[in-house]
From TrEMBL:
GO terms for molecular function: ATP binding; ATP hydrolysis activity. Residues 286-667 form the AAA+ ATPase domain. InterPro entries: AAA+_ATPase, ATPase_dyneun-rel_AAA, Methyl-DNA_Rec/Restrict_Enz, P-loop_NTPase. This is AAA family ATPase. It comes from the Bacteria. It holds the Pfam family AAA_5.
Length: 796
């Protein structure tokens, strides 16, 4: 190239020529050319490295352009780019349709092999709303760089009266995004359908009329009004990173209130100031950091279950058993995680740490002696990973179940070998699975018999004479050809400890020889989920993967809910809001917060989450990965105020969490007289009033201690084995105060026969003079045969 360095190449053509040169070099290499050797003289498989260099140049170009990381979501950039560079130019030229090649959009935006993201952005409902176009026709392989979206851009009739929409900005002017490195100026845009509007802004009503209607919409707070009007609906959409409201009213109602029957406005536009309607940040108002605090036994841990189910978007059943069943389902699917903090909890357990591992990653017997240190993600990082990679969820008829399907593990190239990286990318891009071994065409029906495969393999080479059914080159093709059925599930491994793709087999065995040889065996696959970084296999399977290229996984050891969640988390139909996830931290004040969270404590704040205006990331100390907390991860904690180690917690977390107090609720025990013969609400109230008088309100007794009591004997057992020992802990074995709470303390210094406690007077040891002998007492619980008398507690 004629440039002395990358800076000069950037100033000349924004690195376009350099990237085109690499692209042509890659194409030449695929056709058997040797031009690439000026860069890699010894490489025999340069494709993956050339592809990576092109991606790196794209990233470097965005850096030189001054684009800040996270300034706009990829989906928004993709939609905006296609509207500005494909849809609108085609409309201006009067074309009937326009084709959008995914590979071209990926290259233009400098994305890194974002085929699924581009397909999702262009095929979803949001893009249809923004472009006012019907669902596009998809041509070619699904979710690959070769996918073509064909848009019909002829005038599309409105569902009510045949008129389309136009865009206007917050000032009421026709909306024209300012082009700045493929990003908008940040100005909000709204949909409105002025009377008589055609397909372009030129055919719309006068600008001043649009301004008048726009200001009326904004100043009157239409979005809030619609919710109170029968027949109106409000839908939310995103454009250029800005949250908008799309409204739709019955024409008669719209006429009555003097607004268009369809249109849009800022979310919550209720202030009489247009400047205030502009979105200041892109915060997710639903991100929850919540700590439930209160005395022991007030139902904090149980409440977190109901709150977690609600935050996951599920209906919270009134029945406790149904609630816990829903909770357990979400727990099994990995959308809820539960952890209890303790004094020994550390950063290495919670976020990530290094642990000794025996054997080798590839199960190589020769390298299996001794142990190695391996970076292992903790519970927080694991659930954050799930939340960050969620792309939505298929529901209803689109949801995929593994019921009646086989699940296969499969390797596509060596994950740690850079020379094989292109095989996985080719498989994902092309929509198929690849198997290696000898280039023998197994398509003939006779190869449904294993013996025929053995015979053909032996005939291929004299070195194969000892092959049998256990030989890999026989066993693997036989499984791939004969065991796999259409509809079965394939999980692509990344080493023995991770998986990086899940798909559904949708085709039969095919033989496609390659110019370089190898990996000629193929089956069509509909890829359901892809994560090139990989996820730990223990998320979905109790075992590590073995070295076999393909084999059926044990159904009994699959985590079916978690696997199905991954399978359904890459839906491209309609809006693709990520699923919510919840981490529950029980007894959060039991651990050293700064020790456990480390530098992540700042990342918990809602506005510091990934995708938010003030998003922050940190480089983790063990793995070296950049890490941020996703906005769809909610954190619930419980805190026992009777614990004496809460001062540090208040300092560390008070600003980052919402605190909700949970105090004893005696009304929960209503109806106890019929069951137990005792007024438990009055008993609990009396005990807690006395505790608060003698100690404080944070050391009360929770109602949960008595919720399981169905008889007087049950109440006695709770008092004897739970409540009185807890009082002894509270008052540091000061039995006078314990007796005062129970109503057994008397002002005299004689023996006491109480309702719960008996007091006897201890004799002074011999030799002590009477004047030196202070009265001493022994307190004892009444025996079980004596039972307890609750008169002094319930006032009867």
């Amino acid at each position: 190239m004629p440039y002395k360095d990358l800076q000069e190449a950037w100033e000349a053509d924004r690195l376009i020529g350099l990237r085109e040169r690499l692209k042509k070099m890659s194409e030449d290499a695929r056709n058997g050319g040797q031009v690439y050797r000026i860069l890699m003289p010894d490489s025999e498989k340069p494709h993956n490295r050339l592809s990576n260099w092109g991606s790196w140049l794209g990233q470097y170009g965005r850096f030189l352009a001054g684009d800040p990381p996270g300034a706009a979501e990829d989906a928004d950039r993709i939609r905006q780019y296609v509207i500005e560079h494909y849809i609108e130019p085609a409309r201006e030229e009067g074309n009937a349709e326009v084709d959008v090649l995914v590979r071209d959009v990926n290259g233009a935006l400098g994305l890194k092999e974002a085929w699924p993201n581009i397909c999702q952005a262009l095929g979803g409902r949001i893009f249809q709303d923004l472009s006012q176009l019907p669902i596009p026709e998809r041509i070619g392989a699904d979710q690959s760089s070769a996918t073509v979206f064909r848009f019909d851009i002829r005038d599309q009739p409105d569902s009510r009266n045949g008129r389309p929409f136009v865009l206007f900005d917050a000032e009421g002017s026709p909306y024209q995004p300012v082009k700045n490195h493929n990003r908008t100026s940040g100005i909000s845009a709204f949909y409105i359908k002025p009377k008589g509007a055609k397909n372009t802004a030129d055919d719309a009503i006068k600008t001043e009329d649009i301004q008048e209607v726009a200001r009326a919409v904004l100043l009157e707070g239409l979005a809030a009004r619609i919710k109170a009007i029968s027949g109106g609906t409000v839908n939310y959409l995103t454009y250029g990173g800005n949250k908008l409201v799309r409204y739709e009213l019955d024409p008669e109602i719209a006429k009555a209130i003097g607004v268009p029957s369809r249109g849009g406005a800022n979310v919550g536009s209720t202030e009489a100031n247009i400047d205030n309607m502009m979105p200041k940040t892109k915060m997710d108002p639903h991100t929850m950091n919540l700590i439930l605090y209160g005395p022991p036994g007030t139902g904090k841990t149980f409440t977190t279950a109901a709150e977690a189910v609600r935050l996951c978007g599920e209906t919270v059943p009134d029945d406790r058993a149904e609630l816990m069943l829903s909770y357990q389902d979400l727990l099994a699917a990995g959308r809820i995680e539960f952890v209890t903090f303790h004094q020994s909890m550390a950063y290495e357990e919670f976020v990530e740490g290094r642990q000794p591992m025996t054997g080798s990653e590839d199960d190589d017997e020769a390298a299996s002696s001794g142990f190695r240190l391996e970076t292992v993600p903790g519970i927080f990082r694991r659930i954050a990973k799930r939340a960050n990679t969620s792309k939505g969820h298929s529901v209803g008829s689109n949801a995929i179940s593994i019921a009646g399907r086989q699940v296969f593990k499969m390797s596509i190239g060596e994950a740690k070998n850079p020379e094989d990286a292109h095989l996985f990318e080719e498989a994902i891009e092309g929509g198929y699975a690849l198997l290696g071994f000898d280039d023998i065409d197994w398509s003939d029906e006779k190869y449904s018999d294993r013996a025929a495969i053995i015979e053909a393999y032996k005939a291929e080479n004299d070195e194969n004479a000892n092959a049998d059914a256990r030989s890999g080159p026989v066993q693997m093709p036989f499984i791939f050809r004969n065991w796999v059925n259409q509809g079965d599930i394939v999980i692509v491994s990344k080493g023995n400890g991770m998986f990086r793709a899940i798909g559904e087999f949708v085709g039969d065995y095919e033989f496609h020889p390659r110019p370089d040889g190898g990996y000629a065996h193929r089956r069509a696959v509909r890829w359901l989920w892809v994560d090139r970084e990989g996820v730990a296999v223990n998320e979905i399977y109790t075992r590590r993967f073995s070295m076999k290229s393909i084999y059926a996984m044990y159904d009994s050891e699959l985590n079916v809910p978690a696997l199905e969640r991954y399978m359904n988390s890459g839906s491209t139909d309609g809006p693709a809001d990520p699923e919510p996830f919840v981490l529950i931290i029980d007894e959060i004040n039991r651990a050293n917060i700064s020790k456990v969270f480390g530098e992540l404590i700042t990342l918990l704040e809602p506005d510091k989450r990934l995708g938010q205006t003030n998003a922050l990331t940190v480089r983790l100390p063990y793995s070296g990965d950049e890490f941020g907390v996703p906005s769809n991860l909610h954190i619930l904690g419980t805190m026992n105020t009777a614990d004496r180690s809460i001062a540090l917690l208040d300092t560390a977390l008070r600003r980052r969490f919402t605190f909700r107090e949970m105090m004893p609720d005696p009304s929960v025990l209503d109806g106890s007289i019929e069951k137990c013969g005792i007024d438990l609400p009055r008993l609990l109230t009396t005990i807690n009033e006395r505790i608060e008088y003698l100690y404080d309100r944070e050391h009360q007794i929770g109602h949960a201690y008595f919720t399981g009591c169905n008889s007087l004997a049950d109440v006695d057992q709770v008092m004897r084995h739970k409540v009185i020992p807890l009082l002894a802990e509270y008052f540091f074995e000061d039995w006078d105060k314990i007796a005062a709470v129970l109503g057994d303390l008397k002002p005299h210094e004689s023996a006491i026969l109480g309702n719960f406690l008996n007091r006897s007077v201890l004799k002074a040891p011999p030799g002590l003079e009477d004047g030196d002998a202070l009265p001493r007492f022994r307190w004892e619980l009444r025996s079980e045969s004596e039972g307890f008398d609750y008169t002094m507690l319930i006032g009867e």
